[in-house]
Each structure stands twice: as structure tokens, then as C-alpha cells.
TrEMBL record, chains B, D:
The chain crosses the membrane at residues 20-44, 56-77, 83-103, 188-208. This is Cystine transport system permease protein. Residues 21-209 form the ABC transmembrane type-1 domain. InterPro entries: AA_ABC_transptr_permease_3TM, ArtM/GltK/GlnP/TcyL/YhdX-like, MetI-like, MetI-like_sf. Belongs to the binding-protein-dependent transport system permease family. It is a multi-pass membrane protein. SUPFAM superfamilies: MetI-like. PROSITE patterns: ABC_TM1.
UniProtKB/TrEMBL annotation, chains C, E:
Its main location: membrane. It is a peripheral membrane protein. This is L-cystine transport system ATP-binding protein. The keyword Signal does not apply. Residues 2-239 form the ABC transporter domain. The keyword Protein transport does not apply. Gene3D superfamilies: P-loop containing nucleotide triphosphate hydrolases. GO terms for molecular function: ABC-type amino acid transporter activity; ATP binding; ATP hydrolysis activity. Pfam families: ABC_tran (PF00005). CDD domains: ABC_HisP_GlnQ (cd03262).
Length: 244, 220, 248, 220, 248
């Protein structure tokens, strides 16, 4: 864990320690998860390593529950959270966000035989489920659905499959990942958002993080331009989520 | 604390309290009531001379205490549908919490019964009472008084354990909190807020415990 | 009415009662005397099945029980017909004096609460406790507790009462009172077995004396024969020690 | 069950067991040992005539029982750094679990002590013993026997509650399981597997409980 | 050595002891007699501070204690110098007979275990329990428990022993034995206060008789005067009832 005093530039602290402490869930494939050899991998993890590399320091990953990531960030235990965090206006009030490094579309996933949902408007009065740590509940509610939450993605899929809910909202890429593991699962995408939301790295809002923010922004731009990031995306998602 | 945070906390107060009133508290009360009855029953079963009843009770306590509540919720909610049994979230939660708390409480009650001197039971026999009659009128009133603080422990734990019901789509206080955190990214402050609300509920229970404890004080 | 044959009771390797035979007729007042630890309490406990004898046969009226094979039902049956006053009283700790007495009446004998209270108060009055109806056991003195225990046993009007040292905690005045209560019971035809250390008491209301030592019945006889013409040496020795106590 | 699933379950077995052995079990044992000492201490404090000690003990029990374990973990791990106190995950977990279990257990122990007839204490006084001496040699040996099944409850609960340590970056069994679920999307099977591993640990504890219970059987 | 002045004790609204005055000299054997519930046990409990008196002054040798303001330290001091035999024995349930006796020696008097065991066995032998060292209380008969309680109190060789009906559960033979133990203690100069219902016993070893009724000391006198020339009517009545018991 990082031990740091609040009155010193974060970038300088990181460079002095020689390590960048990155917090991530480690339980959200393909963003951040453990492969069969139990190594922490994923799109976010690779990005973190690249950033640390470019800063000339070592990447140290810390894994915790989703909400603990932010508690630890606030407490100064971690330098960064890289965990597929979507930018919203409300969140911007809390954190400064770097350049987006990916975009995602939200999908409505339903049981194969479900014929009643073809668009977000069809969610009106329907029962939906989503993971707690997400913005999906707000989204579903805005279309008049009745959202309940559970802890993880697999639970939401179970709920759809057992018919306990009509649909689940989730990242399109998560659906594909699930299908990869369960090719025979009787689910399908019923609709996709037209506007993508952007994924970025949140930083604590204070002047100490400014130089780090600039540095990371530079690095993300570089990675985008060089195509490295797209390559990573293809590797993990099978599609390029970097350039819309 | 900045203004934004204060606003969030105020705004979220009712969003957390409402599921507390409509879900956490009813779920706790219903489950606990069933659990206590179950626990009495199981404690009795463990103490009879009937080997089969004995084994059944021991098996139940062993399985339930031995596995995490979360897994029990999974089995009932996500496992049973495979056998064609689809139970709604609320009854499923009641079943699991009652079964779970009942197993723990049965051990507490058994211990308390064993703490009552045998002479009490024997005196009951000698005035012609049957074992169940003695249990209900003589032994249990004394035993429950001894078990009381431990049973309060289990009730107060249950209040907070019901938060696991979020795993089976029940919107209780912790889930309500986590929803707000997902939006605002203020886990620490919001967890402290929900902690405070739990504290209020548990304060009522603790006061009640102390009140009942002194009302039913037994001296010997 | 009660016949015990060949009763044996062990705790671990210790044989506490060795082949006890005892005959009790209706209206008998059998006094069991004997040194501390000789097995008197254990014998009473075996009779109303609180303790499990290792072997032996019990005749209660015309019903025969093998003591090593009694069922719960047998126990309940025998206990409904007997009363028991424990040496250590064993009052229900969560009940008042009056409730201690009425409990058996209301629950086991299905008596109405009013009737039970009436009888309960009557019984407590008999033993001089009319001032203590609503006291809990821990608020009572030793002698008061003992009297509640006596009241509890006699209230149910059983056919046989087993008393285990019923006057041990009582002063001479009260002993006198309890004695007359027991005498009244005897007059009413109640059968009783009484363990006691008070020889005056034994002489006064016993119809039969049983002297026990080391788990055996050394001598059993009617009162006058026992005290005036003891047969066994052990008995003589015991009786002698009593007289010794008396000489100041 | 298909082959893929079986393979997943076999493959994950050690991945779950290892953190169980290196984290769940040590964390439980250390926290529980401290908790019991703490509980004894607090129970004593609650029972002295010293009003201040009384209030302190009551306050502690009230706060700890009243708030969720999760919130306590948050306060120690994410809250204290704001005051400049930075505790490593493992010691932080030990502190929280010991404080938490200690509060509950103190109530159990207090109840058990109250179940011992006053005569035992008085007899101790009359042979010239001091209150602490009587407690240690006469009252507690009897009280702990009564409290034993309830304390086992709390130990067995603790085994499973340690899973909350994943919130403060500690890799224990449940977190290990969730990692595998994240990759394989097989929550039901994997939760059953981890449930079984918990069951094995708790079986050992239950057996131990029954063994000790009959060894220290008290009759009266 | 012990002087009590104006001791008062209430439970709720009931005054159990009303202005008790009592003088005990060194080597006195004070016998307290009186009906059940008269406050004898409560008086003993107030003397060694197990019960809190509402008011009163206690002189123990030259130390003066105000009974409504005693500290823990005072209690410990007084209790280290006194022994107590409870009416209900109160044996340590988790200790064997021998351990019951040695506990106070080892813990409170810091005696070595060997020495304590030696004394413990000696004390148990004195009361005829050499066969029961390793029995737990629940394995002992009533009389055996009572004797353990006596052994426990005398083992510490205190300056003052308070006995609450020490022979209530004993047969005449044993009463005789315990009596001689107490006589030996008296001979050794031990001061004792003994609550008893056995008048023979009181006559035999008492140096002083205190008769209590309803929380008051009705009459206190030396043995012969008390029994032969009682002053108060209440006393006469009480003594009469004793003689009544004797006549068969
Ligand atoms: N905790 C209590 N609350 C109310 N009354 C009590 C309490 N303890 C004792 N008493 C009353 O105080 C009186 C005196 O009791 P105490 O035990 O001193 O009598 P005693 O002379 O020792 O009688 P005994 O010979 O029967 O042992 C009794 O009438 C009893 O009911
Ligand atoms: N649970 C037990 N385990 C071992 N021995 C026991 C047990 N219960 C009683 N005993 C022994 O059995 C013997 C007889 O006990 P019992 O209580 O019948 O004696 P008693 O004649 O009633 O004596 P007392 O007059 O002292 O009450 C005693 O020596 C006692 O130590
Ligand atoms: Mg006996
Ligand atoms: Mg008394």
C-alpha cells in the first residue's frame, strides 16, 4: 500500500517510491480478472502496467471490493483506480477524470424467448437486474423499469435465465465475455444504447494530482496513437473499444 | 466536509431508511421469530434420548453452521430453480435467515437448558409433570433468561446479516447505500451513514434487551 | 402397597445399594434411619424412579415394574401417585412459594387455578407459611424453603409420600408443627416413607423403622421392638450414639 | 455436471484452499483468541460496581454490536488514514474482528456468569479469596462451560465473517472464489464448492466443541 | 473479640433484623437458636459482610466498622479471619471435596499445594470423609456435603467460625463426631457462633445461648441460666415446645 503525505506532489511521490499503486477489483472479466494460472490480467491491468512503465516505475496492484477501491483512493492508500470506471457528470464532481481510454455501450440482455423488449423504451414497467457497482440502475429507472441489484454479473444472468427478471442491463462486452464461457446460454442482446459512455481513470481532486493527471493523459494519447491500446482491446474484448 | 457531501448524505438518508423500514426490519423480525421457535425445537431434539431425533438435530446444526449464509442463499434462490422450485426473494430470504439463525440459537438454548440444575427437572417429575410441561413452565423460563444476552447477540447480528439478501435481489439498507455509492463514489461517508442508521435500530434492541433482562432477573 | 425386591444400585464401581428388600403396607409410616452416605436418599430416588436402579423389582399396588426396564410412561404413572420432599428442597426457582405448590395441581392434575390456589394456600398455612405466599425461593430462609417443599408434596394428596429429612432445617417448634401435619396425614391414611435423623420424631409417628448402613438394610422392625430390642450389633451401636448425644 | 464444470471445480480447489490456510484460518484464530480475552475483560467491567468502568464497557458493546462489521472495517482501514494512522490490512482485520467478536462474546460470558448461583461467589469470599481469584478459579470455569456452545457459535461465525476482509484487500477464501467466478461465470457451483470447504473447517471446530463439551461436563 | 451494636437489616419494606446487639468474647461458643425465619442466617451473613446491614457498628478485636459503609478491603480483612459454614453448604461445584477444602488455603493463604493437601485431608478425615477426597459435590450425599463445608471452614484455622446449622443433615452418630470436632476447636480456643436447632447440642458445647425471634434477640444468657431459668415468656414457650417433641 502507498503511504503518502497529502502535501506533496503525487507524481513526485510515485517517482520517489518507484512504484505506482493501482487498485482494481480483479473480479470483472475481461477488464480486470485472474486467468487460469491465477495471474491478475485484463484490459485495465495491462493499461496500468503500461502507464507504470511509461512513468518509469513499477506497477503494484491491490485488489479489493468495488466500493473499497474508492474508499482506499480517498484515504490515500492507492494512487489510482483502474477498473473500467465510466464517466458521469455526478462522478465528475468527486473525481478528476483522465482522457477516456475506452468506450462502452450498454446492452439490454434478455432470455432468448423474450419477445417483448426491443428498445430501451420497452423497459417501461419491466423487472430488471444489474450489478450494484454500476450506473445501470439509474439508466433502467430513467426508462421506467423496476431495477433490482445483485453483487455480480453472473447473478444477473442467473436471474434472467430463471425468469426472475425480464432483462439485465450490462456492458455489451460483458455479454460477449459471458457468452464465450457459456456458448449455450439462452440469452441474447435485445437492444444497445446508441450513445456510448466513456471509460477513464479517476484521480483525487486536488492540486497534488495535477502533474500525474497530465502525465497519464499524455501516456493515454501516446498509447492510442501508437495503436497499442487498440491491440489490447482486441486481445481482451475481441473488438476495438478505444476508437469509436 | 464539503457541501456536496453533506447534500449527498441528506439526500440519501431517506433512500436508505425506507428500505430499512420496509425490508431490513420486517425481514429481521419475521426470520427471528421463526428462528427462535425452530431453535427451541432443535434444542429439545438434541436433548431427548431418541437417537434419530438427536442425529437429525445435530445434522441440521452442523450443516447450517458449517456453511456460509451466502451459500445458503445461493442454494435456495439460485439452486432450487434447477429442481423446478422457484421461491420469491422475500420468502427465500426468510427461509434462509430463519434456518440459519435457528441453528445458532439452538446451541445457545441447549447450553442454557444444560445450565439449569437437574433438581428443577426432578422436582417437576415429582409433582407429576411430563417432560414437555416441565420444559415449558420451569426449565425454559430459567434457561431463556440465561440465553437472553446471547439471543440478543444473534438478533442484533441478524439485523446486519440481512444485508446479504441483496444477493437475491432484495433491496435492503446496504444495497440502497451501495446504489448511492455507485453514483456518487463516496463509500466512506455513506457507509458511515448507514452504520449510524444500523446503530439506531440496534440501540432500540439493546435498550429492549437491558429492559427485559432486568425485568426477568432471576436470583438464586 | 409397595414392595421392593432385590434392588441394586451402583455408581461406577461403587455399589450404593446392595439387594434392598422393603415392604410397605397401606397406612404405614416407614422411618428410614442410618448414617450419612448409607444410601437413604438413593433408595427414595430409586423408588420413584428419579434414579435408575441396576436391577430389582417394584410392586406398586398390583402393578409390577422391573426397575432396570421402566418406561417413561411407568415413571409418570408412579410419580403421579407419589409425592417427594427433596433433601435439598429443589423448589422451582422461577416460581413463588404458592406457585411452587400449585404448579403440580394445575399442570399435572388439571385443576382450575382458583381451586389450586385454595389448596395451595391451605397447604402453606398448614406448615406455617401464610405470610410467605408470594416470596420467591431465594427470599425464603432455609426452614421456610423446606416447608414449601413439604407443602408442595402434600398438596397433591398422593397415595404415597417420600420425605427426605423433612425437618432437618426446622427449629423444634416447627418440627413439632410439621410433625402434627404428618400425623394428620397418617391419620387420614396416607402411606409415607420418611428418612430422618430425629429419633424422637421416628419414635413418635413411625409405624416401622428401617435402619440402613452402607447400602444395606441392617434391621427393619416396628418401632417399639426396634428401639427397645435391637437385634443387630450395628443397630445397638447406632442407638447408643444417640443416647450419648443426649447426655450433656 | 459437464466436464468443463468439473475441471473448473478441480482446478479451483487449491486456489480456494490455499488462502483458506494462509489467511482465513490464521485470521480467525488470532482474532478469536484476542476476542475471548477482551470479552472476559469487558464482561468483568460490566459486572463491577464501578460506574465508570460499567459505562465504558456498555458503550463499547453498544457501538460495536450496533454497527455492521463492514463499516467497522471501513473506519479502521479507510477512515483512520485521515487522522494519519495507516494500519496494514492484516493487523487492521485482526483489530476489527477481535473488537467485534469480543463485544458479542462479552455479552455471552456476562450472561453465563450471571447464571452461576451467588452462593459460589459467597463461598469464595468466606475462604478469604478476592473477587478476581474467585472469578478465575470458581466462577469462570463454571460459566465458560455454560457459555461454551454460544462461544463456539461465535467462532464458527467468525470463520465465515472473515470473508469481509476482502473489503480491505485481504485475499481470503470467498474472494478467491469470486475471482474464479469472474472468469468462469459459474457462481452456483463455485459457491457450493467454497461452502463445502467452509464446512470442512467448521466440522473440525464442531467436533472439537462436542469433545470439549463432554470433557468439561459439569453436573449439579 | 466481636461486638455488634444496633445492627439493622431490611429487605424492601420488611425489617428482618431490628437493632441487634451482640457481644462475643474470645473462646466463646455462642449458640443462636430461634424459629425458622427469625433472622439467624441473616445475622451471620451480616457479621461477615455477605449481607449489607442498613446500619450498625461492628467491633472486631479493636477495629471498628460502620456496617453501612464497609469497603471491599474491610470485607476481605474480616473474611480472612472468619470461617463460614453455609446452611445450604455452597460447595464449589467444579471442585472435588478435597479441592473445596484446599482452595482457600492455596489461593487466599498462599500455602503450598502439598501443605494444603495435607491439611485438607486432615480436615476431611476429622469429619469422617477419608473415603471421599475426590468426589465432586453432586456425587456426595447431603450429610457428606455438609461435612465438606465444615472441613472447608475449619481448615483455614480462622479466629472466628460462623456455623449455620452445621448438623442439620447429619445422623446422630455423625452429629456426635462433628460435635467432638467442634468441642476440640473450642478447647483449642476457637471462638464460634453456631446457629442450631439441636438443643442437646447447644447445651453441650455452648457457653452462651442467644434466642432470636422475628428479627430480635429475645434473650441471651449463659447456658444453664437460659435453659433452667428463662426470663421471657417467648423463651419459655419455645423451650416448652422442645420438651413436647420429646414426649413420645
Ligand atoms: N432476599 C430476601 N428478600 C426478602 N426477604 C428475605 C430475603 N432473604 C431473607 N428474607 C426473609 O428474612 C427472614 C429471615 O431469614 P433468615 O434466613 O435469616 O432466617 P433464619 O432464622 O435463618 O431461618 P431458618 O432457621 O429457617 O434458616 C425470612 O422471613 C425470610 O423470608
Ligand atoms: N453421582 C454419584 N456418583 C458417585 N457416588 C454417588 C453419587 N451419588 C451418590 N453417591 C454416593 O452414594 C452414597 C449414598 O448417597 P445417599 O445420598 O443415598 O446417602 P444418604 O444415606 O442419603 O446420606 P445423607 O444422610 O448424608 O443424606 C454416598 O456415599 C455418595 O457418596
Ligand atoms: Mg440423603
Ligand atoms: Mg437459616
Amino acid at each position: 500500500t502507498a503511504k503518502q503525505s497529502n502535501d506533496m506532489d503525487l507524481l513526485r511521490q510515485i517517482q520517489e517510491k518507484g512504484e505506482l499503486v493501482i487498485a482494481t477489483e480483479g473480479t470483472w472479466a475481461p477488464w480486470t480478472y485472474h486467468n487460469q494460472d491465477d495471474q491478475l490480467v485484463g484490459f485495465d491491468v495491462e493499461l496500468g502496467k503500461l502507464i507504470a512503465d511509461k512513468l518509469g516505475v513499477e506497477a503494484v496492484f491491490v485488489e479489493a471490493e468495488w466500493d473499497s477501491l474508492f474508499a482506499g483512493l480517498d484515504a490515500g492508500r492507492y494512487d489510482l483506480v483502474i477498473n473500467g470506471v465510466e464517466i458521469t457528470d455526478e462522478r465528475k464532481e468527486k473525481y478528476d477524470f483522465t482522457e477516456p481510454y475506452a468506450y462502452i455501450k450498454t446492452a439490454i440482455i434478455v432470455e432468448n424467448s423474450n419477445d417483448s423488449i426491443h428498445s430501451f423504451e420497452d423497459l417501461e414497467g419491466k423487472q430488471t437486474a444489474n450489478t450494484l457497482a454500476s450506473t445501470y440502475a439509474t439508466l433502467a429507472e430513467s426508462y421506467g423499469a423496476n431495477p433490482t441489484g445483485v453483487d455480480d454479473l453472473s447473478q444477473t444472468m442467473e436471474l434472467v435465465l430463471s425468469g426472475r427478471v425480464d432483462a439485465t442491463l450490462n456492458a455489451e462486452v460483458s455479454y460477449y465475455d459471458y457468452i464465450k464461457e457459456h456458448p449455450n446460454a439462452s440469452i441474447k442482446i435485445a437492444a444497445l444504447t446508441t450513445d456510448a459512455s466513456f471509460v477513464s481513470i479517476p484521480l483525487r481532486k486536488n492540486e497534488n494530482t495535477e502533474s500525474l493527471m497530465n502525465e497519464i493523459n499524455k501516456i493515454i494519447m501516446e498509447l492510442k496513437e501508437s495503436g497499442e491500446l487498440s491491440e489490447l482491446s482486441n486481445q481482451y474484448f475481441g473488438v476495438d473499444l478505444v476508437n469509436q | 466536509m464539503n457541501e456536496r457531501l453533506i447534500e449527498i448524505l441528506i439526500d440519501s438518508f431517506w433512500k436508505i431508511v425506507v428500505p430499512g423500514l420496509t425490508m431490513t426490519i420486517p425481514l429481521t423480525i419475521i426470520s427471528f421469530s421463526i428462528a427462535i421457535l425452530l431453535a427451541l425445537f432443535i434444542a429439545m431434539m438434541q436433548m431427548t434420548n431418541n437417537k434419530i431425533l438427536n442425529q437429525i438435530a445435530r445434522f441440521y446444526v452442523w450443516i447450517i453452521r458449517g456453511t456460509p449464509l451466502l451459500v445458503q442463499l445461493y442454494v435456495i434462490f439460485y439452486g432450487l430453480p434447477n429442481l423446478g422450485i422457484l421461491i420469491d426473494p422475500f420468502p427465500a430470504a426468510v427461509i434462509v435467515f430463519a434456518l440459519n439463525t435457528g441453528a445458532y440459537d439452538s446451541e445457545t438454548i441447549r447450553a442454557a437448558i444444560e445450565a439449569i440444575p437437574k433438581g428443577q427437572l426432578e422436582a417437576g417429575y415429582c409433582v407429576g409433570m411430563t417432560t414437555p410441561q416441565i420444559m415449558i413452565r420451569i426449565v425454559l423460563p430459567q434457561a431463556l433468561r440465561i440465553a437472553f444476552p446471547s439471543l440478543s447477540n444473534s438478533l442484533i447480528s441478524l439485523v446486519k446479516d440481512t444485508s446479504l439478501a441483496s444477493n437475491i435481489t432484495i433491496l435492503e439498507m446496504l444495497m440502497a447505500t451501495q446504489r448511492i455509492i455507485a453514483r456518487t463514489y463516496e463509500p466512506f461517508a455513506l457507509y458511515c451513514e448507514v452504520g449510524l442508521i444500523y446503530l439506531i435500530i440496534c440501540t432500540v434492541l439493546t435498550k429492549l434487551q437491558h429492559k427485559l433482562e432486568s425485568t426477568f432477573k432471576l436470583e438464586y | 402397597m409397595l414392595k421392593i425386591k432385590n434392588l441394586r444400585k451402583t455408581f461406577g464401581n461403587n455399589t450404593i445399594l446392595k439387594s434392598i428388600d422393603l415392604d410397605v403396607n397401606k397406612k404405614d409410616v416407614v422411618m428410614i434411619i442410618g448414617p450419612s452416605g448409607s444410601g437413604k436418599t438413593t433408595l427414595l430416588r430409586c423408588i420413584n424412579l428419579l434414579a435408575h436402579a441396576d436391577s430389582g423389582i417394584l410392586n406398586f399396588d398390583d402393578e409390577v415394574y422391573e426397575l432396570d426396564k421402566v418406561t417413561k410412561k411407568d415413571s409418570l404413572k408412579i410419580r403421579k401417585r407419589t409425592g417427594f420432599v427433596f433433601q435439598s428442597f429443589n423448589l422451582f426457582r422461577n416460581k413463588t412459594a404458592l406457585q411452587n405448590v400449585t404448579e403440580g395441581l394445575i399442570v399435572a392434575r388439571k385443576m382450575s387455578k382458583e381451586k389450586a390456589n385454595e389448596i395451595g394456600k391451605e397447604s402453606l398455612d398448614k406448615v406455617g407459611l401464610s405470610q410467605r405466599y408470594d416470596y420467591y425461593p431465594h427470599e425464603l430462609s432455609g426452614g421456610q424453603q423446606q416447608r414449601v417443599a413439604i407443602a408442595r408434596a402434600i398438596a397433591t394428596k398422593p397415595e404415597l409420600i417420600l420425605f427426605d429429612e423433612p425437618t432437618s432445617a426446622l427449629d423444634p417448634e416447627l418440627t413439632h408443627e410439621v410433625l402434627s401435619v404428618i400425623q394428620d396425614l397418617a391419620a387420614e391414611g396416607m402411606t409415607m416413607i420418611i428418612v430422618t435423623h430425629e429419633m424422637e420424631f421416628a419414635k413418635k409417628i413411625g409405624t416401622k423403622i428401617v435402619f440402613m448402613d452402607q447400602g444395606e438394610i441392617i434391621e427393619a422392625n416396628d418401632v417399639t421392638t426396634f428401639f427397645n430390642h435391637p437385634k443387630e450389633n450395628r443397630t445397638k451401636q447406632f442407638l447408643q450414639s444417640i443416647n450419648q448425644n443426649k447426655t450433656v
